[in-house]
Automatic annotation (TrEMBL):
Source species of the chain: Pseudomonas helleri
InterPro entries: FAD-bd, FAD-dep_Monooxygenase_BioMet, FAD/NAD-bd_sf
Signal peptide: none
Pfam families: FAD_binding_3
Protein name (Swiss-Prot/TrEMBL): Pyridine nucleotide-disulfide oxidoreductase
Record's keyword terms, sorted: Monooxygenase, Oxidoreductase
GO molecular function: FAD binding; monooxygenase activity
Amino acid sequence: MLDIAIIGAGIGGLMTALRLHEKGFTPRVYESAAELRPLGVGIVSQPYGTREITEVGLLDELNARSVDALASVYYNQYGQEIYGEQCGVHMGYPHGQRFVHRGILQMILYKAVIERLGPDSVVMGLRCTGFDQDDTGVDLHFVSANPATPLPIHVRADLVIAGDGIKSAIRNQLFPESTEPHYSGITLWRGVTLMKPFKDGGTILHIGAPSQGSLIVYPILDNADDSGLTLVNWVVEQNGRPGGVEDWNQEADVAEIAHLFDECELDFINVGEMLRNAREVYLFPLVDHDPLPQWSFGRVTLMGDAAHAMYPRGGNGACQALVDARVLADALASHEDPVQALKHYDTQRRETANRVVLANRGDGPEVVRRIVEERTAGQRFDDIEQVLPYAEADAIFSEYHRLAGMQRPQHDATQTSPFASVFIQSA
């Protein structure tokens, strides 16, 4: 049996461990943090991501600690509705769409790995710094988070799966030129606010004029802390702010951006109040990494953000990593030669993931708000059908869903969309 090392106990790395365990493998996960804590803010599990979680038997745990996505609605900066669509099973997908705290999903997966693979299956406090490989295996090099541990530490494995995130040491060794991320010129402010549920309790809001700034709002946990209130995740995209540190956990003061949406008039939510009442706020430059020409190198391969770090638009970052895990495990189970298995995985996944990276460099599905801003010169409109007809907006969304690998139910897969160029040109 192959001795498989997974670098990184994020969502992708932990799901890979579970998928490999299903195939009879006993991988070991190496994580740089001394302990796992439920850090971060909200993410979206798209229907195809929920399918992956369902297949490893964790749907009940996910449902119990997340919110069912009912609808997704787009507004201009004044709170005028542009477009709306149903989500998940409410649109006809076989699986639901869920809004969840990233840290909660990570801890669900971590608990399952420990229960199924054993307490020694995740090694904490070892940060991978690089590797050497030969025809029979890979030597991994680590630095310990414990000052009392002799340094350096070396681990020998038959196969290495690098799920060590956007600042992956493995990717940086393979592609030194990719060390510096691609900065969009936009800074993300990500926060959570404890508040009364809004609208139907399961709607994601997309608000703003992209040239000025954008706001995404969605609930991620009902009755948080037994308060009867909902924990709501929000993300503000601020244009023109200098790029900062590539770190999801950089704390920030919301006062700098709390006023940006004061002109938004919605009768079911006070946006400015929500921002000012945030209990956690993090700052992060909107970055990705250029699509890679290759993921697998002999007995080493990349997955998740290490392979395809993308802008968090359309809720596809974590979901693409979940798909990586399944395809990778299937390849290793169906190929006797692990090198050929990793090549097969590369062939199956890389092109699709790279397309999503490029589509998200534009506005992703948020492009409808940019179209409306351009066609109205940033002013209020009287009739959205005269600005962006529903049929046009709906066709744009159908094409984005197809690009992301979650083709809408009843959509004709053979039909060429006239709106594919909306995303291609945005890249």
